[in-house]
Amino acid sequence: MNAEAQGGQALSGQALSGRAESVASLLRVRDLRVVIGGRHILHGVDLDVRAHGVTALLGRNGAGKTTTVRGILGLVPRTGSVLFDGTETVRLATHALVRRGIGYAPEDRGVFAGLSVAENLRLAERPGAGEPAYALVHELFPELRQRARQPAGTLSGGQQQMVAISRTLLNGNRLIIADEPTKGLAPKVVTEVAQVLERAAEAVPVLLVEQNLAMVRRLAEHCVVLADGRTAHHGPAAELLTDAEATRRLLGVGRHQGAAGPDATGPDATDRAPTGGPSADRTAVDAPPAARPHTDREH
Amino acid sequence: MSTVVLLTLTGLGLGALYFLVASGLSLIFGLMDVLNFAHGALLSVGAYGTWWAASGHLPGAGADGPGFVLAVAFGTAAGTLAAVLLELAVIRPLYERPREQVLATVGVGLALPALLSAIWGADARPFPGPAALTGTFGLLGAQVPVNRLVLIAAALAVLAVLKLFLGRTRHGLVVRAGVEDRAMVTALGIDVRKAFTLVFAIGGAAAALGGALGGLYFGSVDPGQGTSLLIFAFVVVVMGGMGSVGGAALASVAVGLVQQFANYYTTAGLGDLAVVVLLAALLLVRPSGLTGRLA
Amino acid sequence: MTTATPEQTEVGAPPAAPAADRLRRLTRWWPAAPLLVLLTAPWSSLPLPGLLDGPLGSPGSLQLIALCLLFGALATGYDLLLGRTGLLSFGHALYFATGTYATNTVMLQAGLPFLPSALLGLLGGVALAALLGSVSLRMSGIGFSMVTLAFAQAGSILVERDPGGFTGGEEGRAAPAEQLPAALVGIEHTANLYWIALAYLVLTLAVVHRVVHSRTGRVWEGIRENERRVEVLGLRPYGFKLVAFVLAGTLAALGGIVYLLLTGGATPQTTTSDFTLSLLVMVVLGGSGTRWGPLVGGVLYTWADHRLGDLAGSGAVAGLPAVLRVPLSQPLFLLGTLFVLVVYLLPGGVVRLPGRLRAARERSRRVTERSRRVTR
Question: What residues does the ABC transporter domain cover (chain A) (predicted)?
């Protein structure tokens, strides 16, 4: 895969829509820009979340991943276009967009520490939008049922993440956005979270922000890479992760991790990779290989 | 002994009044980050509404018996309405601009008492009240004014209702969650602005009730009454932890008692001074008093 | 009118077009014209019906104008905190009142003449601002506002309770006329007081202008925009904020001394949180963070506060229906309402109005031109 050779081709709406017939995108973001306190955090992010499977949103620290997610949801002031299921939502308030069927598990888990587990879940119920799927949640996380009356602030990090993910599963959401769900968790819990997301993705498409490449390798079919608040790359996840050079350049992962590449070409990764070939891999023109220094903080 | 009893009940009565103002103030700040400088004016609206109705302007209302209850209800309703209007017309259009919101409440806090004094004059007006509530009763040798008990009972009732509302209803759950993390509440698909209006309505109602019954306590109404109570309500809010109703209840009792006892046993005014100095000290020692969330 | 304009013209003016350059350099001195008018006001007998009660040079009018100028200056000093550094202090009245009360008390109790007393009063204000500022600034955001409010309230309670009979409690205390310089006492010397107020205003404007364009002023601007970024640059915001706080407190204490002369006494109203809130209203009304905004707001507020009441009693208003007459009789109602409207509709205050109107006119002109071109 020669990403550099295609470097002159900017990622544009047209370039994507040309292939849109084959893969319908549930969420279509174009030229998303976010300015906070006079600082440009996002300079124009384009991304598509397919109607099935897991789409991973990758990038180095400070590339703007969390801001992108918050911008999509309207939690920060933003401009651009956010089409959810074909409807423009950039002018909608956060709660109105979410009610159209989005479950969101934020980076810091967003658990209400002073509220009990049951109350945290009850908040995610949407009156008038069908029965909440408590059976599913309790099947996936039987622990939460036992701890229903416990204040969520006293839970372990993993248990809090279970609450956060449960809140996205409670409603018949059409899209789940999970922002670094494995951050700071013990390896055993990471596996558990991965299993739950894998299972959830069978029914609902997931936009996954993730630093843990093993997790991406296991779950994601497609990936979008941000650099400096712009989309720098998008394509099949397996392709990117098998290309040690591109992985290092785009994600800043060191050589020793790049050497793990061969593992990713194992059956698990290859049978997921779509047959898009090199043409599926495009690199934005304005993201030079040597990424500019990042000073932006993610919020 | 009789002095101690009188001071205690008077301090509790004053604390009850502070609680009625501070509980709403605390919820509003906790949920919306808005320090509502117009909250004292809402108390004044309640006081004048009650005074106006009890003075025979509202049919059926009067200074005695059920007529007085109706007058208090009318005053409370007027304050609630004013609070809702304030939120919808002044606060909401400035959403996500907390500093402008605070400034706007400063303007309203200035304009409302001025309007009251434009209509009914700047001087204090004697407050009519039922004979049963204006007398005193004997307790352990002290002659305690009945209105102290009325205030304490009202504050306890408001505390109980607030606790029930926050603990048992979905709207209360949304308010408690919003105090912790407003953005996350919207990200769960809940229109948190509805909770803003609701909290303003509750806070306005409590403050206006405080105004209606404070008229009994002070024996008169004047346009500046609410504003002068506001600073002590701020003290209570900070001491109790912003957004905490239970904390506000404890802090208002403490402030009321300290003020009464210090003013009586030391130089007059030292109690007031002690309370504001306490506020400064508390803020500096424990800045989390401002961020301490709903318990 | 933003403060940056003079600098921009200096730096950005092209070397060509010397005539335009000269004109611009001349127009830079436009504040000299109103200053000249203000300087000559005491000799004028121009009647300004409605605006003023008597002719311009009459003692009553001079007294009101002097108060307007004093509060304009005071608001300008307060804006060092609010508009320039982004600090919302609810305790500015304390430093103003310290200037008034300390000077008056030293004169009354120690029997010192006015000038040494004023110096002590000023020093008292500076010391208090430095002390309480260094403590209050350990908090930020609304916590800072609350601490300053608490300190100022403590001062206000002290003054009203009148410990030891120093402050005169709710009545306040008149300044001892025999200890003041003769040229500053009596209605026939109002012009002298007026000039003192004017001098105080010019001094405040000069100090604020200078310091805002210094390195310190640029750091303040940084703090106002984003305190964290200032820290990233390796600067300690605390020290810079303290400088702003003490400087504003000093200017306020000086204003308190002028107020003592102007009104002939100390009144407890100047210690209250309402007094600080009125400063806040003045600044925001006129335009926070601008060179002339706080001055305009202070003058407007003070004038309205003093004159609207009189106007309401006049025949013109008395003839109006009650719905209009009643609110008009309360300046604070009008000011409060105006303030809310400005917060909403005119962020940036009254001084931004001409610029906004010009921009709107420009827009509409461009639209008409375009439509004309199209029809052609």
Answer: 27-253
Place of tokens 């993705």: A201
The answer, for B115 touching chain C at a CB cutoff of 8 Å, is yes
Q: Is A293 near chain C, with CB under 8 Å?
A: no
Pairing of strands B136-139, B142-145: antiparallel
Contact of B267 with chain C, judged by CB distance below 8 Å, is answered with yes
CA-CA distance, B258 to B281, in Å (whole number)? 15
CATH of the domain at B124: 1.10.3470
Residue B17's domain comprises: 2-289
Q: Is the ipTM of this complex over 0.95?
A: no
Residue-wise pLDDT for B111-128, tens only, equals 888 888 888 888 888 888
**Contact assignment for B170 to A167 by CB distance below 8 Å:** no
How many CA atoms does the CB half-sphere of B231 hold within 13 Å?
A: 29
Q: Please provide the CATH number assigned to the domain covering C55-375.
A: 1.10.3470
CB atoms within 10 A of CB C308: 19
Torsion, CA A61, CA A64, CA A66, CA A70, rounded to 10: 170
Into how many domains does chain B fold?
A: 1
Question: Which range marks the domain in which residue A38 is found?
Answer: 24-273
Nearest-5° angle of CA C295, CA C299, CA C301?
115
pLDDT digits over A55-111, tens only?
988 888 888 888 999 999 989 888 898 989 888 888 888 998 998 889 999 988 889
Using CA atoms, how far apart are residues B105 and B36, in angstroms rounded to an integer?
6
Residues 6+ apart with CB under 8 A from A277: none
- Alpha helices of chain A — where are they, by DSSP H? 13-17, 65-73, 94-99, 117-124, 134-140, 142-146, 157-169, 187-203, 213-219, 237-242, 244-251, 255-258, 261-264, 267-270
Chain B residues touching residue A126 (CB < 8 angstroms) = 189
Q: Are B20 and B40 in contact (CB under 8 A)?
A: no
